[in-house]
Amino acid sequence: MVRPEADIELPPIFCPLEPAIHPRAQEIERQADAWIKESGMCATDEEYRWVTATHSVNFYARFAPGAADERLLATALWVYWGFAFDDARCDSGPLSDRPGEFAALAGRVQRAVESPTARDAGERFVPPLRRIVGRFRELGTPVQVRRFAQAHRAWLAGVQWQIGNEARGTVPDLDDYLAMRLLASGGEPTFAMLEIADGAEVPARELESPAVRALTEMAILVAALDNDRHSVRKELSRGQTGQNIYSVLMRHHGLALPQALSAAGALRDRVLLRFLRLAPRVAAGAGAELRAYIRDLGHGIRGNAEWGLRVPRYLSLGRAPDPFAADSSLRWAERPGDPRAAPPLTPAVSWWWDAELG
């Protein structure tokens, strides 16, 4: 039974970035579905239906609309794997409140990313992950694969932080939540794959500059807060509301849910506006590879929002996935919820507004 509080009205999303999608996304999605079915990462038919209902090719086809087909397939397979692992081992699985046990598993999983000869027959998610990263090694440069591995480790660390909060029954304050969400959302590896998808290695002096790091983190946080919005109805319907931006604002700022929805949207819009102001300034002095990377950060923000408004993972409240919603059903806000250019009073992210960044 759906809980009555799940019947909430969500305001439209502000996102003036232009949409884009890979022209052969549907064909590549069929290839991905066949791979998943044979991969062994889904223990039941129900798991397979929910994993494929993430339409992760459609998701990543919006991040990297110009990728070669085999590169889009490889990177989208990791997204499918990430959703499956998250559902079974992170959010609601048996380890979702056992940080010590999850840490041991995370170490085994991470070794499958870092070692091409890793074997772990006792964990069903390891062999398919090793094969996916094997594709990355064939398609990408050693630097690109290493950057992905480091981002993957950061994601697992963030999930462990989140699971530790669950084990203690702790709802983090806003600053801790934003810092944790930057990691636990999976945005680090998702955006790190852009270089592999595009086949362009950004020089380290550019990618690791403070301004580009700020843009990357802004893109991650906007997408993460959008995902909190996309999933709030489903989480309310299932009573899974321990850690999201709304529970944080309700617990620590004394807001009711409607006010928390508004406040979270305003914070998200301030970050997006800063991204929109800073990105063209950084791109103006960048090389071709960095310009492509910054462009696809924007694609990722817009694409994640579009995908999340349509995908059965978020729209389905029952036990079976609903159909994929049509693009024509989407509504967008005309103005940001908060147009201020000043940084929010949250130390974890306020440095993105430093004047020396641009």
TrEMBL record:
The lineage of its organism: Bacteria, Bacillati, Actinomycetota, Actinomycetes, Kitasatosporales. It comes from the Bacteria. Its cofactor is Mg(2+). Belongs to the terpene synthase family. One of its GO terms (molecular function) is terpene synthase activity. Its EC number is 4.2.3.-. It comes from Streptomyces hoynatensis. Keywords: Lyase, Magnesium, Metal-binding. This is Terpene synthase. The keyword Hydrolase does not apply. InterPro entries: Isoprenoid_synthase_dom_sf, Terpene_cyclase-like_2.
